[in-house]
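Q: what does this look like with adenosine-5'-triphosphate bound?
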Amino acid sequence: MSKQADQPRAGLSQDVLNSLADGVFTVDRDLRITSFNRAAEAITGYSRDEVLGRPCRSIFSSTACGAYCPVREALASGRPVINREFDIRHKNGRKIPVSISASVLRDADGNIVGAVETVRDLSGIGEMKRDIRTRYAFEGMLSRSDKMRSLFDVLPDIAASDATVLIQGESGTGKELVARAIHNLSPRRDKPLVTVNCGALPEQLLESEIFGSRRGAYTGAVENRPGRLEMAEGGTLFLDEIGDLPLPLQVKLLRVLENREYQPLGARQPQKADVRFVTATHRNIARMVDEGSFRRDLYFRINVVSLCLPPLRERPEDIPLLIDYFLDRLNLQYGKKIRGLAPSVLQLLLDYDYPGNVRELLNLLEQMVILGRSGELGPEHLPREFEVRLAGRAPLARSSRMPDRDRLLGILQRNHGNRRKTADELGVDRTTLWRWMKRYNLLHSC
Ligand SMILES: Nc1ncnc2c1ncn2[C@@H]1O[C@H](COP(=O)(O)OP(=O)(O)OP(=O)(O)O)[C@@H](O)[C@H]1O
């Protein structure tokens, strides 16, 4: 290879190139390699002498070669191509995941004379990620927060006991995942885990859904229908949104918890129930007891073991961990190669207060991944509603705690629906108040 080909152009000295941790090489307009730094030698297994003057395609045999070649794209458009993820082949045949960026090189007169490509080896990052994941993962949940980690620590013992559990926490904090973990860690793991959402059905339907019905129990009941309790026999019944259970059904459930037997609708004989109960609610159930909308005796029965999941805004250390985990999952799901978030977007997501908790973070990332292709997700990938939510974000929005629905409604009513006065009284800006009202479906009632 001629000495000339080894001269990096446009002021790139070989010493500077060799000092870089990323692989860097340059090509001329025919895509023949004109310089190759040490990191590129380490990543590809080829020495500089072996590659100089050869078409880069013959060295990299990458998934990027061909229509998606970043160098070709940069040469054609004159614009840089940033962080595209591909696999290249090491000289020994091993596949290596890399992130590639490319931009054109110009001579002193501004003419394009070739391109420079940087190659970052991602295989180490994969291992690091795996280590972090394993360290902070528990039964499909990820967390590095002390509160959550202490909860993970006690879950196996709680699961081993047959005690009834009440899981409390705002919507989207992972209550269902915890219920699942309790079942999976319990001696009942080979029997079914059956879920009932107590807020999803009107009272009568809910009653037959949980307790089942016998033929002739009501008009149209032409056959015996097993209830969820029966389906969960030997296993676990997860009563989600237990705070929404109507009072008459609370009495019925109390009897099951006390006597381990129940009566399906229209049945003459009680039926035995060998079921473990796990319950969850996002409501302040102790207050409901004080207000008389939830039976105190049932509360004591379900509250044998009580777990409380902190909202995401109280464990910001989980946000980057979850982002990373969800991005990998979403990349697989949508066949994308998103590497991460631009620092400005990450900062926004770290500062946000997540009224919808982990579910909201997941939904947000899903919308962004759908809009993106590869490389980093930037502000342009943020969905419009999120920008609207951020628009009025005052510094206090993060620290202010959302009141429960009844308290918010009470303050609004006292202020005759005046949002400015209500926001002032709560110490938040009007956008935060609007968001809370929207969440509680109060926008049209006040
Ligand atoms: N610690 C976590 N690690 C990974 N994923 C999580 C974690 N917490 C929650 N998620 C995910 O967030 C979403 C919401 O979780 P989940 O349904 O368990 O919340 P929830 O508290 O039961 O919500 P709701 O009260 O609205 O029913 C799910 O997709 C769940 O997989």
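The longest helix spans residues 318-334. The CA atoms of residues 67 and 251 lie 67 Å apart.
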